[in-house]
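Hi V.,

Quick status before I head out on leave. The structure for the redesign project is tokenized and pasted below; the design run finished overnight.
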């Protein structure tokens, strides 16, 4: 039997897989709508009946819809899926190397499930339906904002106007707006058909994951702004490298920021290929960083 010799670095990331699957399902939605339209020109109802999350589907014990709805998007506008996929791409590619593929998927799908349950809690006697990856993306966004509260990021407001803001202000802005829109728009049945309750459910998951799983500290308190460096036990027990056998790091580390960038690159490599893939110079860099960055 032929063995899989594909390098670990070439394996698809969770972000890539989610992007491909979600976009493929959106294309399938359009194909079904054109090839098999429902009566009176309405969109095809197959995916709606079996994939979207709704009170009706939940009461019919279609429990898989608490996840499947996150792969479906409003077929009437492409901006729904574009906004969600951009958020998944830009935030996900930062978070996944820190958490690893499994933990990243746990955070993503937990956000989707919490979003569905939050929507159900506010609309248990209603007949609306929920689609889109917004709740899952909101979980990623809130986690990122708590992880890097002071790191400036640039957003494209309305996909045109660049705006630079610190994540901590984005966090409070999104939280405040979502609560306001839930109370004054979604619950009264406003004309904007946006499930802010689902957004809040995903948002809460990001906060809880950061506080109780990732850092076990209060948000915006003594939370670490950088990932901690935890070396394997066997590596901690090894003898200190003497001056005769020491290695020079791959890049100059004349400042703390440059050292942090090098450490981030090495941590990404560990996440993809494992600790055994590091060369002696990279291991030496981790030794140096453990002492410097912990001060």
């Amino acid at each position: 039997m032929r063995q899989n010799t594909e390098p670990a670095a070439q394996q698809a990331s969770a972000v890539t897989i989610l992007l491909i699957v979600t976009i493929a399902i959106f294309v399938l939605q359009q194909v079904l709508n054109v090839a098999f339209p429902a009566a009176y020109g309405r969109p095809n109802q197959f995916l709606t009946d079996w994939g979207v999350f709704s009170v009706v589907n939940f009461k019919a014990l279609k429990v898989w819809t608490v996840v499947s709805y996150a792969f479906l998007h409003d077929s009437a506008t492409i901006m729904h899926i574009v906004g969600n996929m951009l958020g998944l791409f830009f935030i996900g590619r930062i978070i996944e190397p820190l958490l690893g593929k499994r933990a990243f998927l746990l955070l993503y799908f937990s956000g989707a499930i919490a979003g569905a349950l939050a929507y159900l809690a506010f609309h248990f006697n209603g007949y609306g339906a929920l689609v889109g990856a917004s709740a899952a993306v909101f979980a990623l966004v809130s986690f990122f904002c708590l992880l890097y509260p002071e790191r400036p990021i640039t957003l494209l407001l309305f996909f045109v106007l660049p705006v630079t803001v610190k994540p901590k202000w984005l966090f409070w802005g999104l939280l405040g707006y979502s609560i306001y829109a839930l109370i004054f728009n979604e619950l009264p049945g406003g004309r904007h058909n946006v499930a802010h309750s689902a957004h809040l459910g995903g948002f809460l998951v990001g906060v809880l994951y950061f506080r109780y799983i990732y850092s076990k500290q209060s948000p915006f308190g003594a939370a670490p702004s950088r990932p901690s460096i935890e070396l394997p036990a066997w590596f901690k027990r090894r003898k200190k490298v003497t001056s005769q056998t020491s290695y020079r790091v791959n890049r100059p580390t004349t400042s703390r920021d440059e050292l942090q960038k090098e450490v981030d690159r090495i941590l990404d490599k560990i996440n993809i290929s494992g600790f055994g893939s590091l060369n002696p110079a990279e291991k030496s860099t981790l030794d140096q960083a453990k002492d410097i960055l912990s001060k």
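Above is the designed sequence. The chain is about 55% helix and 5% strand.

G. will cover questions while I'm gone.

Best,
W.
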